[in-house]
């Protein structure tokens, strides 16, 4: 998550990723009894849905799905700050910039072409779209120390991601919402 914050020059207090822990009846609680408890940990960011509810909810077209890459994008210059996209997203992964962004240092960090951050707009993970356009993979996937994240073309059976999920049990979050999320969790 830190590499995401750094590469995208995210302001203080803003994160495009979070960790969902589940197991018990409530979030962040385990199932079972001590010492035999069980919890699952899921890194959660934008699910880059094939049928994004956030894009449908945006009254000005500031959010859309890039058909070539499948990445759900937003344009801060079009965003009117109504937060309809935030209410429509079942994954709770969008963040509102309440004030002018403040940073830990006085100069931009991360990629030279990282998205700009503006007060009164909504933001979310872009799968490092700027990096994708340069032929690179998203920063979180390139720098994951455990190689727990994969990136690629699911339509290409020879791709690394297709090989990683082949024959494995996969989980997609909130499939019942009809958004057709593009992020797969390997069980």
From TrEMBL:
One of the record's GO molecular function terms: metal ion binding
Keywords, comma-separated and alphabetical: 4Fe-4S, Iron, Iron-sulfur, Metal-binding
Residue intervals of the 4Fe-4S ferredoxin-type domain: 37-68, 70-99
SUPFAM superfamilies attached to this UniProt entry: 4Fe-4S ferredoxins (SSF54862)
InterPro entries: 4Fe4S_Fe-S-bd, 4Fe4S_Fe_S_CS, ET_IronSulfur_Cluster-Binding
Name under which the protein is recorded: 4Fe-4S dicluster domain-containing protein
Species the sequence originates in: Slackia piriformis
């Amino acid at each position: 998550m830190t590499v995401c914050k750094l590469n995208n020059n995210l302001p203080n207090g803003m994160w495009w990723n979070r960790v969902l822990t589940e197991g018990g009846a409530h979030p962040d609680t385990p199932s079972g009894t001590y010492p035999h408890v069980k919890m699952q940990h899921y890194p959660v960011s934008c699910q880059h849905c094939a049928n994004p509810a956030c894009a449908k909810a945006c009254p000005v077209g500031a959010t859309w799905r890039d058909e070539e890459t499948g990445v759900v994008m937003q344009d801060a210059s079009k965003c009117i700050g109504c937060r309809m996209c935030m209410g429509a997203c079942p994954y709770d992964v969008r963040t509102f910039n309440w004030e002018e962004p403040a940073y830990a240092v006085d100069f931009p960090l991360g990629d030279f072409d990282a998205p700009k951050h503006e007060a009164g707009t909504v933001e979310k993970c872009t799968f490092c779209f700027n990096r994708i356009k340069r032929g690179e993979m998203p920063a979180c996937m390139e720098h994951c120390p455990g190689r727990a994240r994969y990136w690629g073309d699911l339509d290409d059976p020879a791709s690394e991601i297709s090989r990683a999920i082949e024959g494995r049990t996969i989980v997609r979050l909130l499939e019942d919402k009809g958004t057709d999320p593009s992020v797969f969790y390997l069980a």
